[in-house]
Amino acid sequence: MLLDEIEDIIESGTTVPFSGKVMVDKEEVLELIKEIRIKLPDEIKQAAWIKDERQRILAQAQKDADTILKEAELKLEELIDQQEVVKLANVRAEEIITKAQANAKDIRLGALEYADSILEETQENLKKLIQILNDNRKELKGN
Asked: Is 34 left (phi over 0), alpha (psi -120 to 50) or beta?
């Protein structure tokens, strides 16, 4: 690198006694400075491009992150909505099952009551028939 070369020239230069100064080859240092000036605009442009590219990449990354976050939020809302639908469906299913069980119990009790009622009526009819048969037998015997 050119700056390293200038540094080497200064370090290898002849020191002036009793001062912190160094003698260097003026032409050699000026030539290096000239080269630096020639290359510097390209390096500044490259640095500016790198900075702009970095900003563009960061902006794109932020945009991508925002998109991913928004999609995740939408998916979460969707899942929550689906969970609510499932929860409501389960509640409704429980209500239907409970009502069906109650109806089945009512039907069973009604059927038992009906059967008991028919049996009781048949029993009463049989009692009457037996009484009639007993009366008819007594009549036949002459009593």
From this structure: alpha
Domains in the chain, number: 1
What's the length of the chain?
143
Q: Which domain holds residue 6?
A: 2-141
What φ, ψ does residue 18 adopt, rounded to 5°?
60, 25
Q: What does residue 137 show for φ and ψ, rounded to 5 degrees?
A: -65, -40
pTM over 0.85: no
pLDDT tens per residue across span 46-78: 888 898 899 999 999 999 999 999 999 999 888
Q: Exposed, middle or buried: residue 5 (CB in 10 Å: 0-12, 13-18, 19+)?
A: middle
Dihedral over alpha carbons 64, 68, 74, 78 (to 10 degrees)? 150
